[in-house]
Amino acid sequence: MATQTQTTAEFDRFEAYAETFFAARARVTLAAKGGFRSRVTQHRLVDANLRLAQASQDHLLRIEQPDRALFVTILGEGPPLTVDGLILRPGALAWMPSGAQILSQVPARVQTLSWSFDWKAFHASCRALHGLDLPEPSEVRAVRLPATLSEAALRGLLRLAGSLPVSQAPAIVEALLRLTLDSLTKGQNARIPQRGREARRVARDLVALADGLAGQPLPLTEVCARLGVPLRSLNAYSNEVLGLSAALYLRRRRLHAARGAMLEGRAESVTMAATQNGFWELGRFAGDYQEVFGELPSQTLRRSLAG
After folding, report:
1. Taking a C-beta distance cutoff of 8 angstroms, is the pair 190, 92 a contact?
2. In the sheet where 59-64 sits, what is the strand order?
3. Around Cβ 127, how many Cβ atoms within 10 Å?
4. Looking at 75-79, 169-173, 187-191, 288-292, which range is the least confident one?
5. What is the residue range of 105's domain?
6. pLDDT above 60 for 195
7. In sequence order, which residues have a C-beta less than 8 Å from that of residue 194 and are 6 or more positions away?
8. I need a labelling partner for 66 at 20 to 30 A (CA). Which of 98, 171, 278, 282 fits?
C-alpha cells in the first residue's frame, strides 16, 4: 500500500532536530555560539524519505544509516558542507555508505536536501533501469549534478511530494530513483579537495575517544599519546573533519554531556552536572554553556524538572 506523509516543524532544541532523520541514528554537536533554531520539512514516501533542513547554528552531525542509500546536496548558495573531510559545494551530490559513521560539518543557514532509499530496493532498481550492479561506496563519493538533477528539478520534486495524492507516492519515488541513478551513472566525479584517509581516521578516533571518556576531561598530551599523533597534526585533522580544534571539540562534548545529564535527570543540580563532567569553575561553565546553547544551565535544569 502506498504511504505518504509530510511534516514541517521548527525546533529550538538541537536534540529534537537530530531525531528528524528517518531510519537513522544521528547525533549533533554544536560547533558555534548562539541559540539553536532550525526548520525541517520531511516527506516520507513508501520506503523513501526526503528531508529539507536549515539551522541557525554551525553544527557537527554524526549519522549512521544502516541498510539505506543516503544522498545529500545543497540548495541555493552559501558555504559548503564538509562530509568526512570532503568539501561539498552547491551543484554536487554526496553518496554516503550505509552503516558507516559519517561526520558532517553543517554551516549555519545552509539549506540541505537529503534523501534515502532502502539499499536492496535501490540496488535492484539500478539493475532494472541500467542493467548494471552499482557497488556501494566504501567511503563518501561525490559527483557533479547533471542537468536532470538541477536545483529547479529538485525543488519541483519537493513541491510534487507535498501536493500529490498518496496514490502517486510510488511515482514520485520512481522519479527520484531515476534522477539519482542518472547522476551516479552519468554525472562526473566531483573534483573536490579532500584530506587523506589519515585525517578521517584520526578524527573518528577522537570522536570515539570522547565517547569513551563519558564527559571526563583528558589532557591533550594523553589524547595525543592514545591516538598516536602529534598535537599539530591532531588539531589539523580535527579542524578539517570536525570543524573544531581537538581541545575545543572535547570541551564542547563535555558541555553537551552536562546538558544531557540535566535533561535526562542524571543531575539534581547545575553544580552536579558541571562537576560530573570536569567543569570546576562554575561561573565560566555557565557562561560557556549560555554562549553555546542560548540559555543558562539553570534554565535547562528547571525545564527538565518541570517535565
Report:
1. yes
2. 25-30, 59-64, 102-106, 81-83, 86-88
3. 11
4. 187-191
5. 4-186
6. no
7. 85, 86, 87
8. 171
Q: Which grid coordinates are listed for 298?
A: 539553570
Assigned domain for 204 exists: yes
Residues 258, 305, 286, 110: is their CA dihedral positive or negative? positive
180: closest CA among 264, 121, 220? 121
CA dist., res. 42 & res. 50, Å (int): 6
Beta bridge partners of 74: 112
Domain count, the chain: 2
Name 253's Cβ contacts closer than 8 Å, sequence gap at least 6: 29, 210, 213, 215
Give the confidence band of 250 by pLDDT, cuts at 50, 70, 90: very high
What does the DSSP assignment read for 188-250?
PBP---B--HHHHHHHHHHHHHHHHHTT----HHHHHHHHT--HHHHHHHHHHHHSS-HHHHH
Q: Which residue has the cell 535527570?
A: 265
Assess whether 174 and 141 both reside in one domain: yes
Question: How confident is residue 4, by pLDDT bands cut at 50, 70 and 90?
Answer: low
Among 156, 186, 216, identify where a domain stops. 186
Query: How much is the mean pLDDT over the chain?
Result: 88
Beta strand segments in the chain, E: 4-11, 25-30, 38-45, 48-55, 59-64, 68-75, 81-83, 86-88, 92-96, 102-106, 111-118, 141-144
Domain annotation covers residue 30: yes
- % of the chain beyond a pLDDT of 90: 49
58 and 137 fall within a common domain: yes
Beta-bridge mates of residue 61: 28, 104
Phi, psi of 23 (to 5 degrees): 55, 35
DSSP character at residue 98: T
